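Researcher: Re-running this chain for the archive, since the previous output was lost when a drive failed. Same request as before.
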Amino acid sequence: MTFEVGDKVIYPNHGLGVVERIEDKTILGTTCGFYHLRIVANDTTVLVPLANVDGVGLRRAIGDDEVERLFGLLGDGKIDSHQNWKGRFKDNSDKMRSGSIYEVADVLKSLTFLAKSKSLSFREKRMLDRAKFLIISEVSEVMRETAVAIEGRVDRALERCFTTKARMAPPPRAKVAKVAPRPPVTSVAAAATRRAARAS
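Model: Regenerated structure tokens:
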């Protein structure tokens, strides 16, 4: 994938950047081309080798039609739930590094849902904040709306997701009350016979 100066791109885990220039640099005797990206969130510059664009997951920002798909995904009621902390953290870390906004949306849904029932670890809380920031910053740039307005839309989509999930969950099974077994009729009759024999 190639980009031009002025293109808005997404650098995984850093967010939205703008290609400010493309130039060759010689490092350790090897000359190669680099994209100079200005990361919008903190106004820092990142150099990405042209040959490593796919390796780092650099991509164009999503379009208007993909924004609607994203909000549909955020509200669909489908949530990945790992009980094992290590497995969950590894899967979510891989998704965050992928560069895909849809993978980041999965992380946002699962960690927000989890945070409703238990306290997240410091690392997961930081990952949750990062996932939300990455989605809000990209969508607000694409839609040319404020981050506050987009955050409201994201929160409403997540609430819709959790409501849908609750509706789709199977109803709890009714508990059957345990009744003490009644003694068999034969034993009752035998006891009565024994009592009659003792009385005579």
